[in-house]
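Give me the fold.
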Amino acid sequence: MSTHRDAALVLAALAAAAAVPALGSDYWTGLAITVLMWVALAQSWSVFSGLSGYVSFGHVVFYGLGAYLVVASWDRLPPALSVPLAALAAAAFALAIGAPVLRVRGPYFVILSFGVAELVKFVVIAVEAAAGNASRLILRTPEIDAIFYAMLALAAAATALAWGARVTRLGQGLRAIREDEVAAETLGVPAARYKLAALALSAAIPGAVGGTMAMRATYFEPLQAFDPMVSFTMIATAVIGGSDDVRGPVLGALLLVLLSELLWAGAPQLYMVVLGVLVVVFVLYLPDGLCGRLPAARAPRA
């Protein structure tokens, strides 16, 4: 099956990327960490939103909660324990909010998911202010190579999760929900359970990624950790690359990181304009993303 081949191709490319630290340049290693971060985030976003059609603008809440948990427990827990706990905490939070939030659909869900992320952000700000903290600085963080390999593992795990979701009954049910939720429920698809499971699965990876990137930044500030641009960028990465193909987030991440490197430092506003134009163009004219233009993707599939 083409889905198996595509997943194997992405995992092989990620395995080849393991040689990046051998180049001996912290710049290239840092750039690779950024690419892997967006691959992991976009793959996890596509598990829920790409398959179910429920477009989440609030996935940054899982990223921010993961970062906050790792930073808050920095002096008490080792990263090998706090990062998995961040993933579990993000998944648990998704389960807690999923039942009420997933009752709404379409633009109402988009607005509500964004609102939940903003609410949690200001709750964290209020908690930190009450504790006398405007921000947090963490010391003795792992070396950049260790962070790279952790992010590589998360990108591989997110790719495997995205592949698994597509080839199992869960993925088939989510696609049915995306096409017509009422008809899917009539045919026996447990829509509420599938949506909740997909949301929890897609929340775990951003939680771990947020915790890992907090160590990379060595600094936590709620407005940055819960920045809505994180959600928008992971959506743009998935949409531009192709949210219904496991290769899509890789292509999208490579393109956006390249644009960021070319434009962000000298013209950040121009980067935002270009990013917005790209999303509009791909949504309107290339809904299958870059993967839809690949020869293998255009060929008839069994």
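The CA atoms of residues 124 and 177 lie 34 Å apart.
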